[in-house]
Every structure is written in C-alpha cells, then in structure tokens.
Amino acid sequence: MTRPGKPSRHSMIMRGIVTPIFGLLAVTAIVLGILNATVWKPSAHVDAHARTKAAYVVTDPGVLPLVDSKVTMRVDAASTGTAASADQNSQKPAVCMALTTAKDAAGWTAGQDVARVRGLDNWQTLSVGRDTSPGKSVKSDQGVAFQDSDMWQQVTCSDSSVSMSLKTDDPQAVLLVAVPQGAHSLGLEMLWQRDKLPNFAMPFYFAGGLLALLAVLSATVFAMDPVKRRKQTEPEQEAEETPEVSVAQALGNAILPGLGNRRSPASGRRLRHARGQARQGDPGPPPRPPVVIDPRNRNLVADQQEGDDRRADDMSSTRVISSQEMASYLARLAHEGEEGRQ
Amino acid sequence: MSMNKSMNKVAVAAALALSLALLPGLSACEGQVPQARRTEPQSTATTAPAPNLTPAQEARIRKSIGAVLDQANEAKDPAGLDQRVSGPQLEIRTSELTIARATGQLDPKTTIPTTIAQTVIPGDPGWPRSVFSITTTTQDQQSKRLLVLDQESARENYKLWGVARLFQGAQLPKFPVATIGARMGQGDDQGLKATPVEAVRRYADLLQNPQGSKYAKEFAQDDFRNSLGTLTQVVQQGIEANKGSQSQTFTPAQGQLRVMHSSDGGDLVVARIDSVWTRQAGEGRESSPASDAETALFGQGKPTSTMKVTYVNVIALYVPSADSHEPIRAVGAEREPIKVEAV
Fold first, then answer.
1. Which of A201, A294, B4, B295 could be disulfide-bonded to A33 (CB atoms 3.0-4.6 Å)?
2. CB distance A119–B35 less than 8 Å?
3. B151 in A contact zone (CB under 8 Å)
4. Average per-residue pLDDT in chain B?
C-alpha cells in the first residue's frame, strides 16, 4: 500500500539508484566513444619492424594483406661488421625483392635457410621465424640471376635498401627478399595503410544512447508505481498487489520489464482474463477445420438444377421485406387513406 | 527524514560503485592483432589451382623469347638461341637459320605472331612446367601457332620448347581461362582413348605405315599426313623412274612430350617425333636433296647413291577421353630437316 503524496520505495530506488547508474554509464560510454573517435582512434598506418639475419626472407601466405590491401615492405641490408671481411663490408650488399607466389618462392629457395615473416607479434613487431625450404638445394650460381627470373610478378633490386609497395588481396601472394651475396643482417619493415579504419567509437555511442534511454525510462515509466501503470478495471484485485521490490528486481525490471516480477504466474492481466474465461466454463466454439473445395469435383447437371432453386432462394433471402409484410403494409396504407378521406 | 537522507547517500554510493565497476569492461576495446590464416596448398582434384603465371607475365616471357628470336633472325645465326629456346624447337630453329643463311631469306613459316588468341597456364606446383599459348594468324594469313613454353626448374626461365602450326580449321579443345589455371598432364594419363605416350607411338606408326597401320581407324584424317603422303608419292615417282627406293622411319623421342588437360576431359599432347628419310637412287645414279631446305643443309656435300635426311617433327595431338566418340586427331604439326647426309 502506498500513501498518497509520498513516493513509493520502488520509485525511490528507481530514481535514486538505477537512474544515476544508467546515467553515469551513458555518460561514460559516450565519453569513451569520443575518446575512441579522437585520441584513441586507430592509426591509419600500421608500421611493424623486425631484424633478422638471412640470405632469404619470405612472407607467409596471407601476411601481405594481413591488415589491409595496401602494404609497403622495406628491407635494409646492413653490413655484417666482422673485422675479417672489412673490405667486403665496405661494399654494400645488393638486395632484391620480388612479388611472387608461395610455391614459386619455395621453388627458388629449395633447400635454403629462409627467414619467414609469419605475421605480427604485436602492432609494432613482425613475427619472424627460421625455416629450411623443402626440396633439393641448388647452387646459387646455377640458373638465371634472381632479378632476371620469369617467376616474379614484380622485382626490384638495390644496393642496400629496397622497398616495394603493393595493393593485393591475394592470400597466396608473397614477397621474397634475396641477398645474393649470402646471409646478412636485415632490417625488415612492413607498413600497411588502412583505408577503412575499425570504428571502435560506434559501439560506445550505441551503448551510450541505449543507457541514456534506460536512464530516462528508469526515471519515468519504470519508476511509476506498478498499480498506477495499470487500468483501474479491477480495483479489488489491484489492491492485492504488493509494491515491495528489491534493488535487483528494480534493475531487472528496468532492463527487462517483467523479469524481476515476483508475482504468481496467474496474477498477470492476460492470465486473469484467461482464468475468467475458464471459470465461466465456456470454452467457446471449437475452431472450425478449413473447408477444402475441390473445383474439379463438381456435378454440373446437379449444379444446374440446384442453381434454379438457389436463385429463387436467393431472391427471397435478398428481399428487404417479405410478401406478407408487404401485403399488411399495403392494407394499412389503404386503411389510412380511407381514414384520411373520411 | 534522516532515514531518507541516509538512504539517498547509500543510493548515490551504490550508483558510483557500480558505475566504476562497470567502467573497465567498457573501456577494454583495443583492436586485436590480426593473424595470418594458414592456407592449405592448392591443386587438389576438386579445386582449381592458381595459375603459375599471370597473363602479363606470360606476355613478358613471350616478348623476351621474341627478342632472342629476332636477334637470331637478323644475324641468321643460332648463337644465343639456347637462352630462350629449347627442346625440338632449338634444333628446328637452328636448322631454319642455317637454311636462311644459305638461301638468304628466312622461310615465312618461321614467323611467330606476337599476339595471342589464348594462353593456357597451369597451376601445378613443381617443375618442369609448361604453358601452351595459341597465337593469332600471321600478317600474311598463315595459320595460328601453338607455342609450348617450358620451364625446366625454378632457377631457369621459360623457353620456347615447341611450335606447331595449327591446321586450317583445326578444333582445339576447351581450356580454363588463364586467370583460373589449367592442369598439366603426364605421359601416362589414364581415362583417355590412349595414354599420351601410346597415342604418339601409334601416330608415329601411322606416319610410317600410312596404308597398313592397324591404328589408322583410331585417328582422324589430318593435313600433316595428307601433305606427307603427297610428297612421298611425288618422290616415289621420281625414284621409280631410276629404279631406286625410299623408306621413312618415325620414332617418338623418349620423354619429349608436353601434355595439358582440357576442360572436356581429354589431353592436348605436343610431342616430338624424329624421322629419317632414306632415298636410294638406282642404276648407279646419285641421290640428290629433295627440297631447297635439304639442298641448303647439304651445302657442298658430295652426293652418293643414298641420301639420308633426318627430320624433327613436332605433332600436336588431341586425345579425347575414353568415353568420347571422337577419334584422336592431330591439330597441328611442324616438320623440319635438321641434317642431310650422303651415305
């Protein structure tokens, strides 16, 4: 029972606890959304590095389009720095890079130690492993020079640093880096340019809007006394309702109205109507089964004969006034006419 | 009232605590580092393998081959041909250049158009690999050429392995488009009218015994056999006049064939068949070369009663699948004498 003029406990909980919670959460979500759209906005460029020492470096299938289709790979070949080969070190090694397929890269590097770029360890570091390509090793001086091979879709060579920019979605495309003079310390860099940045702000905006709506509802509709929310049709039964709610019930009621309702299943309005109907003992007419009319199964002669009778019936059934009523009406009219004349 | 105040404080405190507790959950939205998906090797029986070359690469390869051929043609010197020419085509082209040097001009049949009508690029991993390219007709309306480009190993480049001039009106089988990837065949492919090796052997038998070969019914008539039969008959008339004799042997070269699966289940086979034409003059006469090409190759050699001419033949055969009602048919050929000697 609620006293008039004083808010119920349910209303106090809804307006005092639930609404501020939703309000704060809504503000927080929107602030986080704004932060994700500005300060924490994902960078359009993903720049990852690694360093390895190898004569061949090959990217695994799927690494080139890992972040986006636009990718640039840059390789810097540094000198080995050993004192014994100071003369050689003064001459910078040639580095070549080729765009090819995984099977062609494996064919070229058969039997050789290869540094494999497997992907990203984190957003700044490339994951690099070492492997030996299957197949029989071929002496490097046999066959054509790396840059002259037909197998490369693109190839570029330079004295010390080489880079290649691509736009590819082909998961089988790989980049093969070769240092013809043997293993050298190589600085690897892969730079992806993202055309479509992931929108982390939108989910926060959505959640913020939803929470704000819930806050408003908590302060208004859900804060109303349940008794007042119903029509005053059955006051004697409404009086039996208890307004006692806990915080959990109120929260649940705000999120999913009816979830925190502890009332007995039979106390709902619809169920009351159903119960009343059952009490009357009138289950109502059983539902009629659908009538199936097969237009092919017709006796046309019988239909013709029935048609005449039906037309007569139709005439009588469609009349506004019966013949007897018409006769009495005419008699009454004649009688009134005579009275008028008299 | 005091009850209400304390309740309000509790409510505010609870709201703040709950809000702060839920904050970290909402702020944990860092993007995850993407992982490269490990793709399985292709070229299973059901999936079309990715082609080994792009059409642009194929065009670049043909351009490189064309540059080497043009250089040799201009110099009429086969030196350097082996950079981009191999297999039977290397011997054929060397002979053609030798003949051109003797006659002063290159035979028009040596022309290879630079534009193509179709290219068939397989996706099979491993080596050797082949690419079949069909050119357009030449400017003087010669028939299309079927080019076989071959890559022996990963460390070698594609080379022009064989050229067959397609017969007029020859119907080639259908192949997957170059961007999808075809499949190479092997010499012992089953499910065909005959394995590619066996089909080439039977065709060689048919060339050697045009009248009496038991395989005659398995092959459709073709221009190559017709023209060869006509030439043999003409030579036979001359030889009979001086009571001489002639014989030709045709032998498939071991392992010298390239096979490509067609979309309709058959195989297009390009194979080398070596032949030796021996002509013996009677009544103490000398046997002389039978054509300008043979004359050029014979050069200043001293003729004897017997002339032995070695030919390299490149035959393109279409071998239908075993359940097809079509016969095996030759769709193109090339024939070139490479050695003429008096024995």
1. A201
2. yes
3. yes
4. 90
Structure tokens, A199: 């929108």
Q: Which of A127, A115, A114 is nearest to B36 (CA)?
A: A127
The distance of B11 to chain A (nearest Cα, Å) reads 5
CB A25 within 8 A of CB B16: no
Q: Do B39 and A62 touch (CB under 8 A)?
A: yes
For chain A, what is the largest distance between any 2 Cα atoms, rounded to a whole number of angstroms? 153
User: For the stretch A175-196, what's the b/e string if a residue is b when 16 or more beta carbons lie within 10 angstroms of its beta carbon?
Assistant: bbbbbebebbbbebbbbbbeee
Q: Which amino acid is at A329?
A: Y
Cβ distance of A62 and B37 shorter than 8 Å:
yes
Out of B15, B33, B126, closest to residue A122 by CB: B33
> pLDDT tens across A283-340, in order?
455 556 666 666 666 666 666 666 555 555 555 555 567 778 888 888 888 888 776 6
Query: Which pairs with CB-CB distance under 8 Å and at least 24 residues apart come from A251-256?
Result: A251/A18, A253/A222, A254/A14, A254/A18, A254/A22, A254/A214, A254/A217, A254/A218, A254/A222, A255/A214
Contact between B173 and B268 under an 8 Å Cβ cutoff? The reply is: yes
Answer whether B152's CB lies under 8 Å from B230's CB.
Answer: no
Give the residue from A64, A148, A151, A152 with the most B CB atoms within 10 Å of its CB, the best one to mutate: A151
Run of H or E including A114: strand A113-122
Q: Are A89 and A82 in contact (CB under 8 A)?
A: yes
Task: Write out pLDDT tens, residues A66-91.
Answer: 999 999 999 998 754 444 444 444 45
